[in-house]
């Protein structure tokens, strides 16, 4: 997985006040907590002393996490600040520590910067055009796939009439023109055009006119995506890597048409839990069967012109892995 990136790792609502949360993310056992200042702690969930799980401990009134076994206390940087058996005035050598990640709660999501801690962090790569006017609902689903496969599925414009024949792909034409792909400084953008198969060849991206509308699909590293269904509707997903073979998808419907407090919330929730969930489960049924489980630029597949967004994602990912994971 790609180092030195911001990753969505949880929905904000999953992290309750005064409660330790032990989860596996990016192949690592981590413990999260909120301290009384509203800061988020994220450290390795394995005590440096004798390996007990810190998430089975407790949060003390001084904001430290106390190991359940012999009471070592940790701060949000992963440093042990107290070893009770040595006495409260005994200094704690620096080697008593566990790894930590910089974590923040923003846009209703918990993010970690998965990489070396540093003085300054790059901005959180959330979509600027999803503002607080939108209402949203979140649906959480576990997929037994590597997160690269889950991302690729959301960049795949070819599958709509087949996987989603009775939902969003109903009546979709099967012939794909282009698609047009662009990289901006922040994201991969995809414009997809489907048309009737009249026997003529699909045009290549360079044969298509410059798009006038905003792109339909947007992907940002580490792990977020949106489908821009128009100014007022978005489908957002965070593909949260658990380990090499598991991903949790946080799927959101954002809308700003129904904004009244209760009705807006009910409509958003119903549309997400019924409509979006059904579509996601149609994807899941097929994507979990894909082999190999983990994608890469060069694997045994026979790709076609309209797979270009997937190829671009793989190409850039490989490039970034070489740069970031040295
Ligand atoms: S294992 Fe954590 S304090 Fe001993
Ligand atoms: Fe799909």
What features would you describe in this structure?
With 326 residues, this protein is α+β, with helices and mostly antiparallel strands. It has helices spanning 147-155, 160-163, 261-287, 308-324, and strands spanning 5-11, 21-25, 28-34, 40-44, 58-59, 65-66, 73-74, 80-82, 102-106, 109-114, 135-143, 175-183, 188-195, 217-220, 224-228, 233-243, 246-255. The strands form 4 sheets. It has a 7-stranded antiparallel sheet with strand order 11-17-16-15-14-13-12. Strand 15 (224-228) and strand 16 form a beta hairpin. The longest helix is centred in the last third of the chain and has 27 residues, at 261-287. The model has no long low-confidence stretch (mean pLDDT 95). Bound molecules: FE2/S2 (inorganic) cluster and fe (ii) ion. Fe (ii) ion (FE2) is lined by residues 153, 159, 163-164, 283.
């Amino acid at each position: 997985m790609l180092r030195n990136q911001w990753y969505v790792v949880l929905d904000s609502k999953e992290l309750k006040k005064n409660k330790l949360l032990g989860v596996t993310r990016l192949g690592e056992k981590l413990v999260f907590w909120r301290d009384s200042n509203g800061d988020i702690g994220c450290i390795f969930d394995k005590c440096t002393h004798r390996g007990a799980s810190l998430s089975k401990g407790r949060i003390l009134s001084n904001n430290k996490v106390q190991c359940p076994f012999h009471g070592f206390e940790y701060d949000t940087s992963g440093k042990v600040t107290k070893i009770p058996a040595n006495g409260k005035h005994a200094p704690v050598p620096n080697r008593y520590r566990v790894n930590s990640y910089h974590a923040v709660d923003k846009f209703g999501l918990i993010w970690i910067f998965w990489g070396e801690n540093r003085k300054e962090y790059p901005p959180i790569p959330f979509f600027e055009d999803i503002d607080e006017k939108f209402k949203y609902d979140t649906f959480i689903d576990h997929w037994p796939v590597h997160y690269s496969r889950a991302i690729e599925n959301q960049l795949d414009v070819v599958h709509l009439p087949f996987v989603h024949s009775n939902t969003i792909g109903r009546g979709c034409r099967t012939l794909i023109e282009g698609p047009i792909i662009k990289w901006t400084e922040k994201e991969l953008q995809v414009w997809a055009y489907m048309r009737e198969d009249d026997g003529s060849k699909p045009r290549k991206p360079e044969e298509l006119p410059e798009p006038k509308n905003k792109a339909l699909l947007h992907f940002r590293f580490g792990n977020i995506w949106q489908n821009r269904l128009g100014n007022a509707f978005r489908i957002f997903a965070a593909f949260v890597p658990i380990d090499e073979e598991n991903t949790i998808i946080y799927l959101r419907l954002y809308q700003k048409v129904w904004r009244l407090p209760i009705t807006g919330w009910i409509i958003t929730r119903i549309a997400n839990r019924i409509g979006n969930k059904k579509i996601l489960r149609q994807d899941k049924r097929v994507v979990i069967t894909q082999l190999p489980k983990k994608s890469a630029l060069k694997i045994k597949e026979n790709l076609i012109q309209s797979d270009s967004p997937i190829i671009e994602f793989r190409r850039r990912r490989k490039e970034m892995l070489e740069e970031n994971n040295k």
